[in-house]
């Protein structure tokens, strides 16, 4: 509880230099958390996110690490421990590159490589922060998934399959870590404004908006609000769940 008394939980957001990660970092900071903006190569963008948080009166620092690299991950967590204390909230958002191809076109190296790297990153990040959370008897872990894990779309087999594995991994981790006061949940967005137009174009965006009950595509802030709920104390008795943030594109 020391960190709360000194000014907010320590939250590490991976892949936070832009998009959903940046929106999450800013929102958590606005709610009193001390935020670590992780990035792999986009130092200037990460610094901009940190500067925007500080200018709004929040506390933040940038930390470089490739989340697939174990020594880099452990070094980052050690750096955070020295600067802010133990990580109490982990939002694992970092995007692992993937091929957009049909099953006929994709190779095993492309599909299996994405699956291996997705799970490796989640595994390494979780392993690195759980000891500190266990010591404190408190932790919030939130993984970013995708609606594609339950609603397949042409060309997205690599992303959908790897995120489905991540969702199941989250349930197992939630079951084991619950007795330690650590919750583990997944936020699974549908198409998001900042990426869908860049990757698929305006026509694709309009078509998906028309298929969505709320009539629009999600913004990074829509996703960030769901993440912030799981990252805070209001979700203290919720674990092992997946929150679909898709505006009614898929309803279970």
Automatic annotation (TrEMBL):
It comes from the Bacteria. GO terms for molecular function: oxidoreductase activity. Gene3D superfamilies: NAD(P)-binding Rossmann-like Domain. Keywords: Oxidoreductase. The lineage of its organism: Bacteria, Bacillati, Actinomycetota, Actinomycetes, Streptosporangiales. This is Short-chain dehydrogenase. Belongs to the short-chain dehydrogenases/reductases (SDR) family. It holds the Pfam family adh_short_C2. The keyword Oxidoreductase applies. It comes from Planotetraspora kaengkrachanensis.
